[in-house]
Amino acid sequence: MPEMTDRPIAAPERRQLPTPPGLARRLVLVLAVATGVAVANNYYAQPLLEAIRRSFHSGPGEAGLIVTAAQIGYAVGLIFLLPLGDLIERRRLAVVMSLVCAGGLLAYAAAPDMGVLFAAAVLVGGTSVLAQVLVAFAASLAREAERGRIVGSVMSGLLLGILLARTVAGYIAQASSWRVVYVVAAGLTALVGLVSYFELPRFKEEGSLSYPAALSSVLQLFRNEPVLRRRSFYGFLSFGAFSVLWTTLAFLLSGAPYHYSTGTIGLFGLVGAAGAGMAQVGGRLADRGHQALVTLVTAAAILAAFVLLSAAPRDLAGLVVAVILLDLGCQGLHISNQSEIYKLAPKARSRVNAVYMTSYFIGGTVGSVGAALCYGAAGWGATAGIGMGFGGAAFLVSLGERRYSARRATL
Prior knowledge:
It is a single chain. The protein is mostly helical. It has one domain (23-201, 217-410): Growth Hormone, Chain: A, CATH 1.20.1250.20. The protein contains 17 helices and no strands. The chain has helices at residues 25-40, 49-56, 60-80, 90-110, 114-127, 130-141, 147-175, 178-199, 211-224, 226-254, 262-271, 274-287, 291-311, 316-341, 349-378, 380-398, 401-410. Helix 1 (25-40) runs antiparallel to helix 8. The longest helix has 30 residues, at 349-378. It is globular, with a radius of gyration of 20 Å.
């Protein structure tokens, strides 16, 4: 059993690399928009679950598993596709993944039954890891002193994609049907592939690892990097909490006393848009060395959100405040995590991100499955209790973050 230390897994991973040229604003914008469009494909379903449930005459638990299927697909993509970003030319990878994802979205739109819908959700989820390929791409192109800010900017696009996906999906479905949402999404994703071909630079990491060796090194990174394990645990908890709310919110808002339409439910995506602003703030604070403070405050926000959701689920003002708190907390913690992990192995950023994001989406899967089953069996109170469990665990771990960081600095 190898000793757990803060030493890198291999000396070449940390050798001095040439200073990257930095990113022009146009390229940062392209990366942010492409990332947002890619990740949105995993979130269109959330405000549509009630409409999809009625379309196929299924129960809330079965419909809620659509979100779970997409997250399983995403986790598989993180394990088997994201490491390719360290092995092959990234622009080509982005183009191919965009086109395959567009095909999956068309299958989603044409699904005749829930079985086909689940399969399409897995395919779309798997190829939507394009978003993480692009985040790692931005981190590799950015200079050290600006990496937190650049990653924060690209993550702002990602977060806006998550949040606006719900609003756009709700209104398109209300004006036409939920199937049209996926036809539009397919067109946007194909457009991302076209823009990526013309706008992104060619980029390939140095090295000659084989694909099996790259997959094996992912496990080595997890075993040998304590920071990566700790930040992956935070990611597991934060996205688990995030998924608890957004998997079941459509059911809560479509019932008494709200009885909201899909369009109105989709508007709650805008309520959480403050989380995108937190990505920028979190990135800048990370560049200045305040990761421990960001971690503590954001974990506390997640816990506070679910305390409020548990106490007053039928109070609209309280619900809005809780959604804002949750998105601020989850996205701020996510940025703090990514700022830390991208310092670990400059030539293995896709694989480092694969470890982190796999843990992140396993948490999301656990959260969404638990929330869907608990809501169907015991209602909102049990669902909010799961969210408090995720938030409480993150907060308890974060209390020792400053001491942990100080101890690492002395090693």
